[in-house]
Amino acid sequence: MTNEIAQQVLNGEQDALIAYAELKAAEKSLKAVLAEIEPLALEEAAKYGKSFELYGHKFEQRNGSIRYNFSHLPQWQAADNAKKIIETQSKQALKAMETGNTIIDEDGCVVQPPKVTYSKDSLIVKS
What's residue 36's pLDDT? Predict the structure, then answer.
């Protein structure tokens, strides 16, 4: 079905914006349904072990990753604040560079601008 919609858009048979909006709505709906049934699917998968094949599908159950939070540590907070100051100075250096100027820090060193990359453009649909 989704391949048909894509082909219709590519062939000029269907409006790209309408198709995009409808597919985004379907994506949102699918994500909600998946989130609702995922706990039950995980419970069922536990009966078969970590890796198995069933109904022509291969399943692999993976443990969640460990995430660490250091924000409660005073030394981490100090380092994070220092990093934020460096980032701010570097952004200011970029703005200054665009007008032909440079920024010198309190130690007499030239503040280097950040490397800049851009993410791809996106289209948001709100209904």
Answer: 98
